């Protein structure tokens, strides 16, 4: 099938391709507020499907949902110095509580009412550690009150200068988990457990293979002891941080006096963790699987899993074919699948095929006069456009099997692509050359110094994406300075 003329080819301009897919597939659009986006129904349903799967996984691990205010007293951020330093340049601030009308050059103009200046300015939530741990301190008195395991689904605002739909916007949707524990061991176990939840979700639902590991100190979350991450590789061989989990130690507990009385009656500060993923995951799915015809969505999170396209010419054919198509839709829906029956008369089948391919529907069922006679349908898979004839009898089981195969194949294809773009590099000149010749994940020795890490980033725009948990010990020399190194780390240019 010819490539869509509505989308810039990926190989011609990857950035433009991505934007075209987002807008043409009706996932999102630009808003009148600079840096913000409007998530359209198709995109929001995709996010909802992700949200529902994650929410179920969070609850299975003992977490409860709560909601905390959008506005945070400015003094709260100042209590944790490293935290405020990390977010100060991104914070939006509320200074007044109302507007008033003022005449300027004969025209009514709205201005902040000087009489409504707030006694304490409020920060529009960039993340919620400060206000949540303030509340935890109010609720926790005894070791019996621990652990606290909470999650919040919310929006946050970080005043970004360079924005891109889903990947980096001033306002975005996310979840942020926050927990409090009696011991450092419990906090560390929680941090790693939730990272595993993210990795499982990315691979089993998004069909995106990820690396799991620890961020370097320069890349960790502001105020954390350690930050762990999942990292994915997109089709342009740039990395994308898809989720993070932070061991906060006692930094925030001490700042907000979050203490508990232990079993011996001694007062101790609690240990905290936080972890989050956002609508950036939608961008990850687009870039990991999409093609020059639009979206390619994994069945487990696709807003529409199956579309049925009836094909007919005469009136007699139409009635019988539409009746059978409706029957198939009912059977598939009863099996728990999300199904669309495209019975629009004013669009030919080819145009319908193109539209549903653009929207990334994993499986298309075609039903024409000959199919009706034979008791078969044509099943067209979105990822590779392979077609097969399938019996109408038992169609729900057949379609479910095909969708499972599509899900598994998408993960395998993405993993093969990532592995083919992962290279060992020992020499700094070779490292720079490889970055400019395709990029990917480059495994290189690093001495552990912030100076070498910063120099590599300044000179190449590549960063250490993570120090993977399964990285084998291997004696070597730092590619930048030549000092001793005990393992390779993953470098890449990234979003």
Which secondary structure elements does this structure contain, and how are they paired or packed?
Elements: H1 14-24, E1 28-30, E2 37-39, H2 41-60, E3 64-65, E4 71-73, H3 74-78, H4 81-87, E5 92-96, E6 99-104, E7 107-112, E8 117-124, H5 129-139, E9 148-157, E10 171-181, H6 184-204, E11 211-214, E12 226-233, E13 239-249, H7 251-255, E14 259-261, E15 267-269, E16 271-278, H8 280-289, E17 306-310, H9 315-334, E18 339-341, H10 349-358, E19 363-367, H11 369-374, E20 376-381, E21 387-391, H12 395-420, E22 422-424, H13 428-436, E23 441-445, H14 450-460, E24 463-468, E25 476-477, E26 484-485, E27 488-492
Helix pairs in contact: 2-6
Describe this structure in words.
This protein has an eleven-stranded mixed β-sheet with strand order 3-9-10-16-13-12-11-24-27-23-22, sandwiched between helices. Strands 18-17-19-20-21 form a five-stranded mixed β-sheet, sandwiched between helices. The protein folds into three domains: 14-91 and 126-289, BirA Bifunctional Protein, domain 2; 306-401, Anticodon-binding domain (Rossmann fold), CATH 3.40.50.800; 422-492, C-terminal domain of ProRS (Translation Initiation Factor IF3). It has 14 helices and 27 strands. It is of the alpha+beta class. The two termini are 31 Å apart.
